[in-house]
Task: inverse folding
């Protein structure tokens, strides 16, 4: 991906989450079948320190209302039904692990692994540790060129780079009005920036691209939002429905 490229990449947000249970192997397979360029997915740590692909802090979508992902060990987590909340046809779908996704589909496209950071739980270093784990797993699988570490938390990205200097890092930014001296310092070590489509402007995208950084945007599930992304000349667009997005762009 090059900043300012003519046609933006299609990134499947949590896999093909419009048609399948988000962040699951069926959602990833469907995204790849839709000819996406990349897949974005969320990573969390289990109680025994294994990275799994799940978005919500609590396991309501896996039948354990109020139970946190980080409170369960992997063996118990894998017994849960992670698909019925979406459709009973997916009742046999299980929570996927990071290693499972890398082994099955790691070379198929660009992967964006998002580590979320809860302000009240940053004190124990859990999320920075997870950033380092993701970076190390990518290196061990020889997939550094296929993977990106993504987060709203710069400390997570820094921890990933400290663990594996070659790992690519992208910062999620909800809102940034301009790229001044302070913003340039924040963005300098990054390999890209991802903006909420509601805050994207052509001037902002141009300023970031002039730094040599590609610009991603989320989440575009309507023609109006896709057109806004195209008008701003972003480099990659995330959508819950990659098949629909690809049909618009190609």
Result:
């Amino acid at each position: 991906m090059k900043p300012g490229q003519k046609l933006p990449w299609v990134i499947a947000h949590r896999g093909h989450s419009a048609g399948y249970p988000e962040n699951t192997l069926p959602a990833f397979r469907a995204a790849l079948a839709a000819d996406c360029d990349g897949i974005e997915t969320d990573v969390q740590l289990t109680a025994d320190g294994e990275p799994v692909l799940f978005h919500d802090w609590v396991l309501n979508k896996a039948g354990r209302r109020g139970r946190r992902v980080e409170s369960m060990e992997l063996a118990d987590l894998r017994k849960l039904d992670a698909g019925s909340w979406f459709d009973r046809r997916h009742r046999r779908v299980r929570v996927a692990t990071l290693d499972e996704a890398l082994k099955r589909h790691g070379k198929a496209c660009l992967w964006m692994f998002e580590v979320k950071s809860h302000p009240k739980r940053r004190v124990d270093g859990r999320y920075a540790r997870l950033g380092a784990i993701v970076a190390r797993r990518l290196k061990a699988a020889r997939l550094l060129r296929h993977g990106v570490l993504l987060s709203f938390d710069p400390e997570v990205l820094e921890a990933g780079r400290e663990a594996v200097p070659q790992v690519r890092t992208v910062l999620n930014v909800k809102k940034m009005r301009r790229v001044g001296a302070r913003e340039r310092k924040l963005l300098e070590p990054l390999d890209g920036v991802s903006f909420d489509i509601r805050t994207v402007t052509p001037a902002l995208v141009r300023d970031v691209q002039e730094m040599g950084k590609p610009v991603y945007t989320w989440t575009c599930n309507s023609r109006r939002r896709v057109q806004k992304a195209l008008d701003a000349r972003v480099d990659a667009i995330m959508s819950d429905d990659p098949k629909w997005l690809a049909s618009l762009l190609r």
User: Anything to note?
Assistant: The longest helix spans residues 126-140.
